Amino acid sequence: MRRWKIAAGITAAALLAAGCGSSSGSGGGNGNGPVTLTIWENYGTEQNATALDNLAKAFHKLHPNITVNVVSQPASNYFALLQAKAISRNGPDLAVMWTGLFTLQYKGFLQNLKGLVPASALARVDPNALKWTSNGFNAANGPYVIPLENQFYIGFYNKADFAKAGVTSVPTDWSQLYAACTKLKKAGFTPLVYGNGGQPLGATFYPWYDMSYMMIGAYSVSQWQGLYSGSIPWTSPTITAQLTDWVKLHSSGCTNPDVVTNTNNLGQFESGKAAMMVDGTWDTAKFTSALGNKVAAFVPPYSNTPIKGVVDFAGDGLSMMSYSPHKKQAAEFLTFMTTDQAAAIINAAGLIPAIVGTSTSNPVNQQMLDFVSKDGMTAYPMLDNMVQGNVVNIGSKFLPSVLGGSESITKAEQAMQTTLQQLPASQRGNTFP
Question: Considering its fold, how many domains does the chain have in total?
Answer without folding.
Answer: 2
